[in-house]
Design goal:
It contains two helices and eight strands, in the order αββββββββα. The chain has about 160 residues and is of the alpha/beta class. The protein folds into two domains: about 1-30; about 35-145, no CATH class. It is flat, with a radius of gyration of 23 Å.
Length: about 160
């Protein structure tokens, strides 16, 4: 009888542990549901989004204020059209706000960093961020550096 009680307690402990890990994984991955009524949409077009993904954070000064809703290719301009969901509590973004695609650390995930401007008019639902800065691709930077080093060593001879 004692063995069954011990096995039952271990089983309950294991199920609780697995549920806690599942909850943690969902919470950390950003898969929590986002109510679109609590957010408004802002559009930004980039020349290169790098490895930016849907549900990537949108931040101002390191504080998350929204998420990337979708990333599409504009067939006319061949630029990436990124739709951002911004929390209603952060609805005072000036129309001259700039958007940058940045990387968390050296090899981390990409996110959208916003730099608010000083305009008196705020972005509204469906508004567009005019000034954007594309993602810096590490491979491209290394390639440029190697090309310049090779070019410089060729001139020295």
């Amino acid at each position: 009888m004692r063995s069954r009680t011990t096995e039952s307690l271990v089983g309950i402990f294991m199920v609780a542990g697995m549920l806690a890990l599942l909850f943690l994984a969902i919470h950390v991955s950003g898969l929590t549901p986002v109510s679109k009524s609590d957010h408004y949409r802002v559009i930004a077009e980039f020349d290169n989004v790098g490895s930016l993904k849907q549900r990537a954070p949108v931040r101002i000064a390191g504080v998350t204020i929204g998420r990337v809703d979708s990333i599409l290719l504009d067939r006319k301009t061949f630029r990436a059209k990124v739709v951002l969901l911004i929390e209603n509590g952060s609805n005072h973004l000036p129309t001259d706000t700039e958007a940058h695609i940045q990387t968390e650390g050296i090899l981390g995930a990409n996110y959208v960093a916003l730099t608010p401007g000083f305009d008196q008019i705020d972005l509204t639902d469906g508004g567009k961020i005019a000034v954007t800065h594309p993602a810096l691709i590490l491979e491209n930077l290394i390639g440029q550096m190697l090309f310049k080093a090779k070019e410089k060593s060729g001139h020295d001879q």
